[in-house]
Write a structure and sequence with these properties.
The complex is a heterodimer of chains A (323) and B (289).
Chain A (H helix, E strand, L loop, with lengths): L1 H30 L4 H8 L5 H11 L5 H13 L5 E2 L4 E2 H36 L4 H15 L2 H15 L17 H39 L2 H8 L4 H23 L1 H15 L4 H10 L3 H29 L1 H4 L1
Antiparallel strand pairs in A: 1-2
Chain B lengths: L1 H5 L16 H18 L1 H4 L32 H37 L1 H16 L2 H11 L4 H12 L1 H14 L3 H8 L4 H37 L10 H8 L8 H28 L8
Helix pairs in contact in B: 2-4, 2-12, 4-5, 4-7, 4-8, 4-10, 5-8, 6-7, 7-10, 8-10, 9-10, 10-11, 10-12, 11-12
Classes of the chains: A mainly alpha (323), B mainly alpha (289).
């Protein structure tokens, strides 16, 4: 019963959003100067007017806009995002090839940001108003205000150029041809600096959120009840405080997924990370519109799906929302 | 009444609230005023054109009094670059925030005041824009047109308004039921007047505080866009300076570090300002003293 209602609610919320995003992508596609045929003939040197007209007819570019739009929607829902003119391959394949690198970076940064953000935010709430809180608040405000690419560059200056602890770019040692454990540690070694640069901003967000949520929770009646029951304060902090405070933090973490993807694009550029960020910049340089829109659409789908999952997770964690 | 006024414990009305007398807040205001003055009088303050080769290349900061912050690989003055760059950076930050404030307030006001299906549709649209990764949307918009300062500001404004829309909706939802709005409705005021003249002035403080976050975000996004070389190549901004220093980051790291410090200080001040003003408007969140 409850599950069916959740699924219905999700479908009612997520599908119109998805449809709207596809519409915007379609409008953006038609605002671009030139169409796919212009781009293809530009790549192949030149084509006669006749061949271009033939290609337009073959690609269906002469159909009316509503017909083209319906075809576009059908394409997106079957994960067909068109062809990349730059790579002469389906956009989905081009993106999927780069996706693992970006997901690795994002996942590492996310775990790093969430865990340290929660610990810092918890410390801020426990010491609220005292110097530990003030210091951490100032620190997180500083991280919150710094552009991630600049943080990345400064990390390179100190940890790579000066201390020579970590490599400044790339995802692996080129030409090393490592196997097994050595391969894994090499990848990990390359992952440290970019994921720290990407995580910095989100550490600040999660810390501030955790602090606010903890202070809110610690005011609740059930915390007083727990204290009067004589439970150990540490136990109350963790089992009753932190656990309930994590619910809003989880929700907001999902909302920030899109931001993190945008951040990853920039951080990847700084660290020459072979992921979606570099693909975006290449697509921009080559005016590869379909790839750009494909990245925008796929990442939007990813954000929607993640938020639906988090919605379910939260309603499972918090019985108050279920009703 | 007169008894109250003579009460020694009664604070004079014009005294600044406690959170406004906080040293950090005062410092933030000073920094922002300084940056503002720098941007307005950039032509008078900057000794050189930031795109002109005026000195030896790779002068370190403080090495030569005529280029106090050093020079880049082409001998261009970094101090002039930072001063002139503040213009583009602040211009994009503020104009994108104004655009975001206008779109967001319109959408949020209509959704909050009318409710029902207007609310449902407008909030759906808001969610669509909130779902798309901001920076990717900006990049796609910039790929369509020629990169210029106005287009960057417009694209950031178009991507950033949902936050304001949500704020405005919440304000209008609660103010719609307020007594003075009921009174205005009972007097037969037209809806447009109730929205613009009765509710909006009361919602505006919250929205403007929200917009201070938009300015900070706008500056960060502009610097990312210029860093990625998507900006106008003939206009110097802090982001483009950081990007320019990237090629020799291992040796002449000051070329990226100093414009970054300027960015961080400005954005930090805006965030402190926004935080403090939020505390004042919403005393419940002011837990920190």
């Amino acid at each position: 019963m409850g599950l069916l209602r959740t699924i219905r609610r999700t479908a009612l919320q997520a599908l119109p959003t998805m449809f709207g995003i596809v519409l915007i992508a379609f409008i953006l596609l038609h605002l671009m100067p030139g169409d796919a045929v212009d781009a293809i003939s530009g790549m192949s040197g030149s084509s006669s007017q006749e061949t271009m007209e033939e290609m337009r007819a073959a690609y269906g570019l002469n159909d009316s806009l509503p017909v083209q739009f319906i075809r576009y929607v059908a394409g997106v829902f079957t994960l067909n995002f068109g062809m990349s003119i730059n790579y002469s391959a389906p956009v989905l394949d081009v993106i999927m090839e780069r996706l693992p690198a970006t997901l690795t970076l994002m996942f590492t940064a996310f775990v790093l940001a969430l865990s340290s953000g929660i610990v810092i935010g918890w410390a801020m709430a426990v010491f609220a108003g005292r110097w530990v809180d003030r210091l951490l608040t100032a620190g997180s405000l500083l991280l919150y205000s710094a552009p991630n690419f600049w943080v990345g560059l400064m990390i390179i200056v100190y940890f790579s150029a000066k201390l020579q602890l970590f490599p400044a770019g790339g995802a692996e040692t080129i030409g090393a041809d490592l196997q097994g454990w050595a391969w894994f540690t090499d990848r990990l070694h390359h992952l440290v600096l970019p994921s720290c640069a990407l995580a910095a901003f989100f550490v600040a967000i999660y810390a501030r959120l955790t602090r606010a949520a903890m202070l809110e929770v610690l005011r609740q009646d059930y915390i007083r009840t727990a204290h009067s029951k004589g439970l150990h304060p540490m136990l109350i902090q963790f089992r009753h405080g932190l656990r309930n405070a994590l619910i809003p933090v989880t929700t907001v973490a999902g909302l920030h997924l899109g931001n993190m993807l945008g951040g990853a694009v920039v951080v990847e550029t700084v660290f020459n990370w072979p992921g979606l960020g570099r693909l975006t910049m290449n697509a921009l340089a080559a005016r590869d519109t379909q790839v750009l829109l494909g990245i925008l659409l796929l990442s939007s789908i990813a954000v929607i799906v993640t938020n639906v999952l988090i919605d379910w997770l939260v309603s499972w964690l918090d019985p108050r929302i279920r009703s | 009444m007169s008894l109250l006024a003579t009460d020694p414990n009664d604070r004079p009305r014009l005294r600044l609230p406690k959170s406004l007398r906080n040293p950090l807040f005062v410092l933030a205001v000073i920094v922002l005023l300084g940056v503002l003055v720098m941007a307005v009088f950039a032509a008078q303050i900057a000794p050189y054109d930031p795109l002109d080769m005026v000195n030896m290349p790779f002068l370190w900061p403080f090495a030569d009094p005529s280029s106090p912050l050093g020079t880049d690989q082409l001998g261009r003055d970094l101090f002039s670059g930072i001063v002139q760059g503040s213009r583009a950076t602040l211009l994009v930050g503020f104009s994108s925030a104004v655009l975001g404030l206008m779109i967001g307030t319109c959408v949020g006001a209509l959704a909050g005041y009318f409710g029902g299906w207007v609310d449902i549709i407008l909030m759906r649209v808001t969610e669509i824009f909130q779902t798309m990764p901001t920076l990717l949307l900006i990049i796609v918009i910039l790929a369509i047109g020629n990169p210029s300062i106005p287009l960057i500001a417009i694209s950031i404004g178009l991507a950033a308004w949902p936050m304001i829309a949500r704020l405005a909706r919440a304000e209008f939802l609660s103010l719609r039921e307020a007594d003075f709005v009921m009174a205005a409705r009972a007097l037969g005021y037209p809806t447009g007047r109730i929205i613009l003249r009765e509710i909006l002035p009361n919602a505006l403080p919250t929205l403007i505080v929200g917009a201070s976050v938009l300015v900070a975000n706008g500056i960060l996004l502009e610097s990312a866009v210029s860093f990625l070389n998507l900006g106008d190549p003939n206009v110097v901004s802090w982001g483009s300076l950081i990007g320019n220093g990237r090629t020799q980051i291992r040796s002449e790291w000051y070329l990226s570090a100093l414009p970054g410090v300027a960015t961080v200080l400005t954005v930090l001040s805006l965030n402190i300002l926004g935080d403090r003003l939020t505390d004042i408007l919403n005393p419940r969140s002011g837990e920190r003293s």
